[in-house]
Each structure stands twice: as structure tokens, then as C-alpha cells.
Amino acid sequence: MRHFKNLVRPYLVWSFLIIVIPLFLIFMYAVTTNGNSLINIQFTLDNFKKFIEPVYITVFMKSIKLGAITVAICLILGYALAFIISKFKEKTQDILILFVTVPMWINMLLRTYAWMSLLSDNGVVNSLLGFLGIDPIKMMYTDFSVIVGLVCNFLPFMIIPIHTSLAKMDKSLIEASYDLGANPVQTFFKVIFKLSLPGVVNGVIMVFLLSISTFVIPKLLGGGQFVLIGNLIENQFISVGDWNFGSAVSLILAIIILVLISVMKKLDIDGMQKGA
Amino acid sequence: MNKLIELKNITKTFDDSQVLKGINLDINENEFLTLLGPSGCGKTTTLRIIAGFEEQDKGELLFNGIEISKVPPYKREFNTVFQKYALFPHLNVFDNVAFGLTIKKTDKNVIKQKVERMLKLVGLEGFGQRDVTLLSGGQQQRVAIARALVNEPKVLLLDEPLGALDAKLRKEMQAELKKIQIEVGITFIYVTHDQEEALSMSDTVVVMNNGEIQQIGTPTDIYNEPENRFVAEFIGESNIIDAIMLKDCLVQFDGFDFECVDKGFKENEEVEVVIRPEDIDIVKKGNAKLEGVVKSIVFKGVHYEILVETSERTYMIHTTDYFETGLEVGLSFGPEDIHVMYKD
Predict the structure, then answer these.
(1) Chain A residues interacting with chain B (CB cutoff of 8 angstroms)
(2) Per residue in B83-96, pLDDT tens?
(3) Which of A255, B74, B132, B225 could bridge across to B87 with cysteines, CB 3.0–4.6 Å?
(4) Which class does domain B237-342 fall in?
(5) Is residue A41 part of a domain?
(6) ipTM passes above 0.85
């Protein structure tokens, strides 16, 4: 077995090249003043201080808010769908899960453009409403359109981990719950939901991560003035050219996500142990 | 004794295969009843129908004389000990046992009292705060029994509960289960494929095969008076011999007439005779009707298993005495050792 160890070396080199070095560069950009000069590096924390300015804090809070709403909607819809799917025969379940992933085969940009044509002022939805004699509603470039985009793009990331934990659940535990006098509703809350928590936690983390870091969906469905943290980072690199500030924001986001994941994982483990 | 549960002509089909072909069974109060049979005989399905996890296609299921087939499992006054225990991994020992009482919104102090008393009964005092997934198989089994019994069910259903335990622990748990059953004084319906387990614990054994009941009786009846070849072969080792019932108390096989104690067969009816290996004595050649040669001798711990070849067949004998292979011997047995069965 020993000589197989050497097989890991190309991977180490590769991950060093594409993960460690870029991360180090981001870190270096974040803690230095502007310029790409390697000779006179000047360390500073100004890039991080800049983030505390109200205008950026607002962007940050808005991202968190939209992320939380998206997670909440995905959780309710995703759990319901995963639960219904898990009731079918195994073969049917495989097909249904395949259907869940079908939208992911199509480029996210295309799907988002489709939503633009559906939701725009003279789009499909408003035309239908027009037939029913209802005045057109402004849907594009609002929180609503962005949340619709986020939910539709990221729902599969909620359904799949929840379905996995529901499908692998020991059915005799559910029977045991009935046997001990719990009706279907009590069984759901006291047994099924609690045992599916690992899937829920994974789904929540994934959807939240994707929602607060995306920049395509808010840009297209929210319009130019709709800025989320992902757009902020994108702008710093592409249009403003302040790579140092962009790197600092990326780092802040990464740290927040890291903290969030560890808190969720901790909650999950405690939940499994104490049944809380 | 009062009839507690009645199964009337119960049938069940899964995916075109009929697993129960008309089960009729009365279960009494305070009875330890065992459904015994090989895997796939329908014993677990019968138990699951009683528990309410399956519904029969046809037939009636009565509890205290009332039809309960449509009553969901959570409204039945039965509790189940599952094959693989089915303990809730997200709850500790105490909360697992307390589950049923919590659902019924029992007062917290009462729950505490009852759970602790039950943990004591199953020998797990002080284990309340332990993580169930870290317990040994035997301990998990005890938690499962406590979790079921704490609800004071009218009937406890046990689905091969000792199947996952090692031989020594099984023996201990068998004795303990019997003790618990006497102590709490309720009906136990026990499913197993292990004949020894069935014989040592039960008041009544129900032998099943291919979705049909083969015989219902006390352990001694089932062992000593098997009704057919299947029961005789399934319950312990046996010599099964084709024979002719000449008249009451006289049976002919292997070319000799033997006295026996069975009556009620037709004259010259073809029957089968069961002789248990431990009922045959090996005697000196010339002292018995049947004669043969010792073909093999195997040490089994408590006894030797000896095969003796006669001119007609090979007999299996269990004895504590040693005999050389190749020795010519006689085989002797008394009239009460011959059990006559109807031929299938």
C-alpha cells in the first residue's frame, strides 16, 4: 500500500497551485495598499475599515436578508418536495430526483434570462394577468424577482440533501413511533424531522452560501442598482479596479461563511445528541 | 382463560405471492405465545398485522371481541419490540423509554418514576443519560423492551428480538424475558425461527410453514407429538420412518411389528413414525428387533451423535455412551417412544 502514497503528490501540487496560492494572493491584496509592485509592499488594514462604512454595511445586510429569505422559502418548498418524493417506490424516487436536477443541466444564465422574459413588465406573467383584466404588476428589478431567481436556481441544493437523509432513514423507527402511540403529525415532528436534520443543515448551508455570494442573478433580475455582496466584489475587480478592497470583502465573506458553517454543524451535532 | 386476540381466516398477498393462507388463531390473556417457523413462513407478517403495520386482505382481527383491522397502530393497546430494536438515535436511553408516555402527555414526575422503575426491571438502572447508539446489543435490546413495556400494553409483540445477540447472551435474555412476562403478567406474542427458544419460553407454540399453521400446542406436545413431518423435522432432530398402522397400538416398519400408544387410525393406514434420537437405546446385538452397524460417531458436547446403519435405513441416536465404529449393535425403544403421524 505504501508506494500508492506517492500518487497523492500530483494532487498536492495541483491544489497548492490552484487553491493555496490564490488564497494567499487574496490575503496579500487584502492587507496591502494598492498596486501590484512586489518591491515596496505596504501593509494596511484600511481595506477592512472601508467595509464598515454604512453604504457597504447596507449591502452586506441586504445580502444576508435576501439569503435568509431564500433559505426559508427553499427549506419549506424543498422539505415538502423531498418528503413527498421519499414516499414513492425506490425506482420512482430516482426518476423524480433526476427531474429535480434537470434544470441544473442548463446554464444558469439562460435560466435567469428566462425569468427576465417571464417577469418583465410586458412579459408572460403580466400578459396572462392582462387577459384576466388585472393591471400589470412591476416584478422585475425588485426583491421579489431576485428572490424568485435565487429560489429557482438553488432549490435543488436543498431538496437533494434532505431527500438523501429521508431516504436512508430506518423505516422501523417510524413504525416504532406509531407503535408507541404517536400519530402521523407527532411522528413527523418528534422523529422524522429530527432524524433528517443533518440533511436540512447541509441544505441550508449550501443554499445560503450560494445565495449570498452569487452576482449574476441580482445583476440580471435586480437591475444595475441592485447591489449584493457578490456584486460588490465583482465591481471592485471588474469596474472599479480596487483589487485590494475586493479581496478584503471576499475574505470577510469567507470568514462569515466559515463561522456560520461551524455554528450550524455544532447545532446539528448537539441536536442529534440531546434531541433538542 | 379469556380469549384476548382472535385471528379469523386471515389472508395476505404481497406482489402475487400469498404469504398467509388463512390463519386462524386464538390468543389468551397472560399467554406467552410463540409463532415459530422458517424464514418466509408468514410469522412476521402475522405479527405485523396484529401490530397494525400491515392490513390483511381478508379475514377478521378481533381484540376483546371487537374488530380492530382498521384501527391505526398508534391507537392499539399493543407495543412492539422490533427485530433491530429501532431505538431513536437522537434520544438518550431515558427519552427513548419515555417516548410513549411523553406522547400521552403524562406528568413529568410520573414519567420519571415509571421510566426508572422500568429501567430497573430490565437491569439498566442508572443508564438513563447514556447515548443509545453506544450501548451493546444486549443493552439496546433491554432498552427496547423497557420502551415497550413502560406503556403498560395489553399485549407485547416481539419480532425475533434475540436474533442479533450471541448464543450466551441469548440464553440469558430468554430466561429474563420469561421472568419479565410473569412479572408484568401480560400477553407476549413472540416471533422466532429458533425452535429451542420457542420451546424453552412459551406456553403455546404455533408452528407455521408456507403461510399456514402446521400445529398449535404446548412445547411438550409439539416436541413429543408432532402432527406432521414438517413439525417433526423442524422441531429438533428426528428419525422419520414410513410405516403401516396395522391396528390401534400396533405399527409395522422395517419388517417388524412394534407396540405403540397411538390410536384412532384406520386399519392398515399408511403413516409416518417419528422416533427422537435420544429415545433410542443402543443394546447388545440380539437383544433388540432392529440390528445394525455403527457407521459414525461424533462428539457433540453433552452427547455423542451416532449413526447406525440397518438393512433398511440409517438411524440417528443421541447417547452419552461411546461405541466403536464398525460394532454390530441392536436398537431398542419403548412403545411410548414411537410417535405416529398422519402422512401428508
Answers:
(1) 170, 172-173, 175-183, 186-187, 190-191, 194-195, 197, 271-275
(2) 889 999 999 999 99
(3) B132
(4) mainly beta
(5) no
(6) no
